[in-house]
Amino acid sequence: MRILKIACLNLLFYPLFIIFSLTTFVNLGIVVIFSSLFLSKRKVLKLLRQAIRWYGAVIIRILFFPFIRLDYKNYGANDPPGPYLFVCNHRAASDPFLMAVFPYEIIQVVNIWPFRIPALGIIAKIAGYLSVREMPYEEFSLRTRELIGQGVSIAAFPEGTRSRTGAVGNFYGAIFRTALETGAPIVPVCITGNESVPPIGSGWLRPGVIKIHRLPAITSDRYRDFSAFKLKNYVRDIIAREVQAMDQTA
User: Fold this and answer.
1) N or C: which end of the chain has fewer CB within 10 A?
2) Which residues of 126-140 are buried (b: 16+ CB within 10 A; e: fewer)?
């Protein structure tokens, strides 16, 4: 029965994903070109980022269903206003799509490989996604401070690469230096259940439940006296504890 579910998931998902992506990218290109004739660059970028969020939401909530379901819990109902720095653990290649659960204008800090994906990489560059490996920290800092100043939230996966064991790896420090420079609230985001969407070394998706927990924001009054090293380990420990608890209740 499980083999049948895996076959059905992949036979249904990939054709729909390709058709939906091609249709979205063509229409999105037309909309961006047309709107740039009448709107400011800032408004065009906001429109583009909203469209990317909509694109991701359709994939994770409609194209995955019913074989892969989302279990999203928001423990940050009393968070201060954004923009936020979303700090996430990294389980799978599908992690960036999961950021569509958040109802904000968001750009992502990514590794080099997403920019190499045809069409999607081009749109990500236009939208202002940050390839942290391809820019010096001074440029990264300037770009992130500008985005925060414009009210744009930033999502980062500071492990740099997906976990092969499920355990939360060591964090890189760039996004935490940005936090200290801007004072933006840090929102820990914990993801489990998507390590087979798809598994490392395979393109075959597996059915299951993806859990996403948005934890309460860590405000600057709690971390302003930290060093970047202390802050990254502080946030990592919070995420690691929650991820472990989520795995144990899977």
Assistant:
1) N
2) ebbbbbbeeeeeeeb
Helix (H) / strand (E) containing 198: none
Task: Say what the pTM is.
Answer: 0.93
- Average pLDDT over the chain reads 90
Structure tokens at 64: 């995955």
For residue 82, give the nearest of 154, 144, 141, 130 by alpha carbon: 154
Cα–Cα distance for residue pair 18/39, rounded to 1 Å: 30
CB 11 within 8 A of CB 69: no
User: 208 has which bridge partners?
Assistant: 68
Length of the chain: 250
Count other C-beta atoms under 10 Å from residue 114's C-beta. Answer: 16
Other C-beta atoms lying within 10 Å of the C-beta of residue 154: 24
The whole-angstrom separation of Cα 43 and Cα 161 is 32
Rounded-to-integer distance, Cα 232 and Cα 171, Å: 6
One-letter amino acid identity for 114? Answer: P
Cis peptide bond upstream of 66, omega within 30: yes
Domain ranges of the chain: 68-248
Distance CA 210, CA 141 (A): 32
Span 163-206, pLDDT tens digits: 777 789 999 999 999 999 999 999 999 999 988 888 887 888 99
In angstroms, the CA 90 to CA 189 distance is 10
Report how far residue 144's alpha carbon sits from residue 146's, in angstroms, rounded to the nearest whole number. 5
Identify whether the C-beta of residue 28 lies closer than 8 Å to the C-beta of residue 124.
no
Q: Are 154 and 104 in contact (CB under 8 A)?
A: no
Give the number of C-alpha atoms closer than 13 A to the C-alpha of residue 154, restricted to the C-beta side: 30
